[in-house]
Amino acid sequence: MKVELVVKVGGAVITDKSAPAFFNSKQAEKLASEFLPFIDQKMVIIHGTGMIGKPPAVKYGFHRTGVIAKEGQATALKIKKDILGLNDRFIQVMNRASIPTIRFDISRYYDSVVDDFNQQLIKDNCFKTFKENKLPVLHGDMIRLADDSHQVISSDLITAILARILRPRYVIFLTNVDGVYLNKREMQKGNYMRSITSKELNEMEFLGSDELDVSGGMRSKLKYAIEASKYCERCFIGNGKKVGILNEMLLNAKGTQVSIEDQ
């Protein structure tokens, strides 16, 4: 059984500070129409936390370390509750659109004793979900560590982990930009890169990490996309707000193709 698609939906795509509970339901509905043609294939969806995760990271000062000390356990639990609420809303939209999705909580697979995820169990339960004719939906999360602190696990990291475990045909990162830009000047012109390798990433002048983004900004996203590209046939970054983007990526290679080396 081959996994066809691992799709990561950026938090900036499905959250909006002006929307009720920060959830952009209209955009989620548009995404559902993108996913619908692929429901008979093995697809895994991961979404970011966007306006749910970023503001508290800045407010409580863990946007640089990604760790909430054990003294902040109540804060961590409140944030996790809000993230689960976002996940519930996303899944409800998918299910209303006849996309049979179910929450897949990756934090349950973390073993604090060995400080790692149980990869075989993740794989087994993903395929069990497929056999039940459902698509697993994961989300950026927090895991409780052995010392009772909480570690942020970004949706980009989860995507890279799943790529390594599931070896899908495609890995897609849907963001709020058309692709990866070489520098600010090219971004202003709208000229995104059609492809990028790990070597080119190290040479880029513009992609410094967003210090206010607990997930690390575009540089971090690219790092995880390059890691994911080791385990799939093709990996792309593109605009999740554009109509028809999934087909455009898969059929016409729109967006930025990411790879470990020149293809």
Topology:
Blueprint: E1 5-9, H1 11-14, H2 25-35, E2 43-47, H3 54-59, E3 67-68, H4 73-96, E4 101-103, E5 110-111, E6 116-117, H5 119-131, E7 135-139, E8 141-144, E9 150-153, H6 155-166, E10 170-175, H7 184-189, E11 195-197, H8 198-203, H9 217-229, E12 234-239, H10 245-252, E13 256-259
Parallel strand pairs: 1-2, 1-10, 2-7, 4-7, 10-12, 11-13
Antiparallel strand pairs: 3-9, 5-6, 8-9, 12-13
Helix pairs in contact: 2-4, 6-9
Model description:
By secondary structure, the chain is α/β, with parallel strands linked by helices. The protein has a single domain, classed as Carbamate kinase, CATH 3.40.1160. It has helices at about 10-15, 25-35, 55-60, 75-95, 120-130, 155-165, 185-190, 200-205, 215-230, 245-250; strands at about 5-10, 45, 65-70, 100-105, 110, 115, 135-140, 140-145, 150-155, 170-175, 195, 235-240, 255-260. The strands form three sheets. An eight-stranded mixed sheet has the order 4-7-2-1-10-12-13-11, with helices on both faces. A hairpin with a 4-residue loop joins strand 5 and strand 6 (about 115). Helix 2 packs across helix 4 and helix 6 (about 155-165) packs parallel to helix 9 (about 215-230). The longest helix has 24 residues, at about 75-95. The chain is globular. The two termini are about 25 Å apart. The model has no long low-confidence stretch (mean pLDDT about 90).
